[in-house]
Amino acid sequence: MTPTPAPTAGPAGPRVPLIAGNWKMNLDHVQGITLLQKLAWTLDDAKHDYRRVEVAVFPPFTDLRGVQTLVHGDDLSIGYGAQDLSDQDAGAYTGDISGQFLAKLGCTYVLVGHSERRTVHGEDDALLAAKLKAAFRHGLVPVLCVGEGLDVRQAGTHVEHTLGQLRADLADLPPDQVARLVVAYEPVWAIGTGEVAGPEDAQEMAAAIRADLTSRYGDDVAGAVRVLYGGSVKAASAAAILGRPDVDGVLVGGASLDAGEFANIVRFEHHVTS
Ligand SMILES: O=C(CO)COP(=O)(O)O
Asked: Domain residues for 161?
């Protein structure tokens, strides 16, 4: 079955929350299938309604064919995407992966500009703008990651910094493509560190991103874009973050490698903590 399509909605319509698991460079293709099967069973047992809360995983490239086979074979409603793509479509680009290949593997989504790509691989905003275009050329929904490092947070310029990334990456993307985008705010200082930005920090940035999109593209476009938070999210912290009005989901790293923990994040409405 085709994964739940990414919903679009105007300012009056609800944005369906997206709970996304970024496996990073973890789980080979056998381990990946085992985890996905367990996640699907756990959510099935809990009678999870995928129309209310969408679920997607971002496995390594080498897992994607196995994930596709399982999702189609078992008629799962879990979506999937890749962690990166090339800005090019084909040719002499050793080691790169075309969006065309990802589309053929049934990917709905692709991460663009994860902080680990920006820092470890030196990807700059010009390249990320080209990657966004490549994703749309192949019908993939990009999940564009933005966010500041600790020095910027301490200097208090995190909002300008993050909006600067967003503007540079979106560059001259047409409004109908911007409307389909998912933006993930991932403060670098909160990734893999156990430090979670508070719900108010997540809301502050999500609201700033939406206000910026509104000023440049109008209410209808800004109202359709889903803004996620990512950085050390666990089941215990997810509900409060997801309860904030401009936060439309979470992008989970480490905790997405545990099917039970990740399922509890997906089921956040049932695990509300005080
Ligand atoms: O980078 C992240 C998701 O893309 C966050 O990772 P952690 O949840 O492990 O901090």
From this structure: 18-270
